[in-house]
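Q: I'm building a small set of examples for a reading group on sequence design. Run inverse folding on the following structure and report the sequence directly after it, with nothing in between.
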């Protein structure tokens, strides 16, 4: 359904590695909530009696909905069940440390009170309230860093924005005009009226020119010098890499980076998709990302009424329950690469290695590389029950009990002499 391959839309993935901004909170965070929520949530995979399986936030483009009809849907967008505190609390319960909300997605609809457009939740809907503001306040209250998603290139509502070729003629589009009159002023509004913005998630840089990327970057840094910018700003000018959607690298990566992942197969809510990742899958993917040095930005798609789908929320709470037992092994850790196997993965902090055993070895023995520092002891993190650790010429050998210790992933702490 999409005309361009995502690789072409994502553009340059490199980043500026000489960051002078404060990055500590970002490297410590590891797990975060992404929220795709907008008018498209109302369509929920259906338009004009047709079903659109797959990513629902693209329904305007996929169903070639004209701007007039699309705007009409705003008249009945009334998310009476939206509760910013409850969503922020869900993020906290899930063990997440920051939250990124779609302030404006490709459909051009602002979920905040923008003065430079009428196509906003405050002016075009009966709800009239600024949900970005509500979430920002809720995050502040709950100690979460706050981030915004802003689609800087694609704006299907504007004839000068990029991407709407079913209603407008792309050859007549003046992209710089759109940038100057809508994108930059809206980004300024977000940077100046919503407290501290920890990070900004730009998307699909596509054909944007370098001087335009510089304009965006300068705008962000003028108002929020410490705001971290993702690589999808384009032209290698971001501070952290956002990998491809749902992509986990096979090896650790340099610099700051993030995997963004969907809970099912769409970012925005769809009535047609119940393919939820289980708590085990989410935890295994989190471990995979963190052991390679990245952050895991996990998406939820609230419904049009503002509520989070029950199953999605329940799975996230269970995920958080597991994480709460093993916090020390996750937050603020460094990656530790033990080869490309899927059976286990590790992180490290100080003189400790945290080993996540996802699949129990058939012979109850784990052969790890031989480490330079002497091992002092090994034990299961939750019960403190000792695990036998020995070294031979080639390996560090852990002898495990017969039974799995934790059904999702058993966490073993190995302590070393020195760091
Ligand atoms: O086109 C968007 C998509 O709808 C979604 O927002 C994702 C999230 O990373 N970004 C784009 C595709 O990569």
């Amino acid at each position: 359904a999409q005309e361009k391959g995502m690789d072409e839309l994502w553009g340059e993935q490199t980043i500026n590695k000489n960051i002078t901004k404060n990055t500590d909170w970002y490297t410590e965070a590891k797990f975060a909530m992404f929220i795709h929520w907008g008018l498209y949530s109302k369509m929920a995979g259906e338009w004009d009696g047709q079903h659109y399986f797959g990513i629902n936030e693209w329904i305007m483009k996929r169903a070639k909905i004209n701007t007039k009809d699309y705007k009409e849907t705003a008249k009945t967008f009334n998310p009476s069940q939206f509760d910013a505190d409850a969503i922020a609390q869900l993020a906290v319960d899930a063990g997440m440390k920051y939250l990124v909300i779609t302030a404006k997605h490709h459909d051009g609809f602002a979920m905040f009170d923008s003065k430079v457009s009428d196509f906003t939740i405050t002016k075009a809907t009966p709800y009239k309230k600024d949900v970005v503001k509500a979430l920002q306040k809720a995050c502040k209250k709950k100690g979460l860093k706050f981030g915004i998603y802003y689609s800087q290139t694609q704006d299907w509502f504007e004839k000068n924005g990029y991407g709407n070729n079913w209603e407008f003629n792309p050859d007549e589009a003046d992209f710089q005009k759109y940038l100057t009159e809508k994108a930059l002023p809206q980004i300024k509004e977000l940077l100046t009226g919503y407290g501290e913005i920890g990070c900004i998630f730009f998307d699909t840089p596509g054909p944007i020119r370098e001087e335009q990327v510089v304009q965006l970057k300068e705008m962000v840094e003028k108002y929020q010098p410490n705001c971290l910018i993702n690589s999808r700003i384009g032209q290698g000018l971001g501070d952290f890499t956002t990998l491809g959607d749902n992509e986990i690298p096979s090896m650790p990566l340099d610099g700051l980076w993030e995997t963004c992942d969907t809970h099912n197969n769409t970012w925005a809510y769809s009535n047609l998709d119940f393919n939820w990742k289980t708590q085990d899958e989410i935890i295994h993917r989190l471990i995979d990302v963190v052991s390679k040095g990245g952050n895991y930005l996990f998406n939820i798609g609230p419904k049009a009424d503002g509520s989070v789908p029950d199953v999605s929320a329940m799975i996230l709470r269970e995920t958080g329950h597991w994480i709460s037992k093993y916090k020390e092994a996750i937050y603020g850790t460094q990656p530790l690469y033990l080869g490309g196997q899927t059976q286990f993965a590790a992180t490290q902090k100080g003189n400790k290695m945290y080993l996540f055993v996802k699949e129990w070895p058939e012979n109850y023995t784990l052969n790890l590389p031989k480490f330079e520092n002497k091992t002092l002891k090994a034990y299961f993190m939750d019960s403190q029950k000792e695990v036998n650790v020995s070294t031979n010429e080639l390996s560090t050998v852990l002898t495990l009990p017969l039974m799995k210790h934790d059904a999702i992933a058993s966490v073993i702490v190995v302590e070393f002499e020195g760091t």
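The chain has a mean pLDDT of 95.
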